[in-house]
Structure formats: structure tokens, C-alpha cells
Fold this sequence. Notes:
Layout: E1 2-6, H1 15-28, E2 32-35, H2 43-53, E3 58-61, E4 64-65, H3 71-84, E5 89-94, H4 98-103, H5 112-128, E6 135-136, E7 141-142, E8 166-168, H6 173-182, E9 185-186, H7 196-200, E10 209-210, E11 213-218, H8 222-239, H9 247-254, H10 258-269, H11 273-278, H12 282-286, E12 289-292, H13 297-307, E13 311-317, H14 320-330
Parallel strand pairs: 1-2, 1-13, 2-3, 3-5, 4-5, 5-8, 8-9, 9-10, 11-12, 11-13
Antiparallel strand pairs: 6-7
Helix pairs in contact: 1-2, 1-14, 3-5, 5-6, 8-10, 9-10
Amino acid sequence: MRVGLYVAYWPWFSAEEQIALAEQADGVGLDSVWVAEAWGQDAVSVLGHLSAKTERIGLGSALMQIPARTPAATAMTAATLDVLSGGRFRLGLGVSGPQVSEGWHGVPFRRPLARTREYVEIVRRALAREAPLEYDGQEFKLPLEGSELGKPLKLLAKPVSERIPIYLGAIGPKAIEQTAQIADGWIPFMFNPERAPELLKPFEGTGVDIAPAALICVDEDRDRARDLARPWLATYLGAMGAKEKNFYVETAERFGHGDAAREVQRLFGAGDREGAARALTPELIDGSAICCDYGELDQRLAAYERAGADTLLALPFGDRPRIVEALGAAVPA
């Protein structure tokens, strides 16, 4: 199993931390470093900077928001980052949720499956540069339907990579099935190794890179390690989505933790963030994070490998430089 470093987004990591940890990960031999975005720092700018600060390590977006950019803009961005990094870029995409899509980007959150499928198809066609780009879909039409002046264009920039891999951050069952059909990689959140057979069934025989993002919370005391995970998980269950539509809460419900997840969501929505964090049960935390001491870390990583993970995106909480060092030591040369 490959191990990558997930440096998320501000304010969970500062810009200085992202850069320093990426350089450290490059030095200790980790596979890749991944950057996310919400409604603050964008992923592209940070990845562009990291392309100049690192030498070997892969660079990935986990995730770039589909409603934030047209498919053609994403293809341009992917080609640019691939050239700047010397062919190290991996394109991770996510449809986001209605709160961000409609509230922040002003893009209707409708038919997310069709939108994702068409988006990926257009990005692939644009990056292939085999012909001027034309597309006649349900969600996207290129050139714009009814346009008198629009004409098909061909991407000017040529990526270094023959094929830039596309990862999807799908959560719902139908989205996961589609990911197995159209993506090069899957970045699940709240991936519990004990439920791997159920989760990975759609991917059997596909060759898709299974790349779960997992919190790595290390402390000599297991309960203190779990406490490190609480703010992040409470935020995702409580704020990343509307009360009626939160993909993370729905995932927790499917795994048998619905009561706890709904209580976290209720308390967070009422403004009680500390109470929401306390409402997380050990079972819910352990299903989404590796919480252990340094002596157990290798064993816990091995559980993900046995479960079928190909690449683990490690999101460190605690002494982050020490965790990155330990992850490097756990990776075969």
C-alpha cells in the first residue's frame, strides 16, 4: 500500500504547514501529497506552489470542486499543474453538496450523477487533445447551444502525462458504483476497513486505485488520540451539508452510527461545537480515523492494506512532523 499525505485546507493546516509537511513527505519517501478546498483557500494555487517546492512526490487535488469550474477550465488547470510538476499531477474531483454548490458557487445541485459523468468525459476529451472539443450532453453542451459565435477549440497546452488520472470523492452508493465505472481512483472518507468487502464490491476487477482519506491521530493515550479527531469529524457531520442533506451523516447512518451522527449534527447546528465533538462515540471515531500510539501505527496501517486500500491519504493530527516521519518509516523503500 502506498501512503500519501493529505494536507487538507486552511484553517486546519496553515499555508506554512502545508509547504513544510509536503517538503518533509517528499524527503521521507511518501507517495503523494493532496490538497483540498472548501470555501476559502483553493487547491490549485497551493498545488502550483508545491510543484516548485518538491521534487519527486506526486501532487493531487482531493478534491477540486466540480461546481467551482467549468470542465474546460479544469482541463486547463490539470494540464498546467501536470506540466509545472513534471508529470506528477493527479486530478481529484468532487461534486460537493447543495450547501456549497448553490450557496457559494451559485450552481444548481441537480442530477449530480449525470453532472459528474459528463464532467469527467469532457475533461478527458479536452486533455486527450485528439480533436476540437465538442459535447452534446444533458448537463453540458459545447459549443453553447444556440451560440452563433462559439466554435469548438482544442486545448493548447499538452500535459506531460499521457493520461492524467482522475479520482472521484464519491460517497453515496450510486455515486460509488459510477466511480467504479468511470474513474481511475476513488477517495472515500469514513472508510472503515471492517466494512471493506461491502464498500469495495463495485470495484472488483476494475483496477481503480482505492485511496481512502483517513485521519491519523497519534498519542500515547487512546482517548486523547480520539480527542484529536473530534473537531474535524464534528465539523463534517455538523456543517458540511444541510440538515436534510449531509452525505457524511448519511454514510454514518449506513454504518450503524446514525443516532450519534444526528446528535452531532443537531448540537453543531445549535452552535454547540464542543458538545457536538463530545457527542462523537468511540465507535464512530474509530470507523473514520486511525487513533493509536506510535507503536501501533504500523499495525493500523496494515489493516487498511489488508482491507484493499491501494493508497492511504493520511490526514495527520497531533505532532504532524513526527507523524509524517513515522509514516515514512512505515513505507518500504
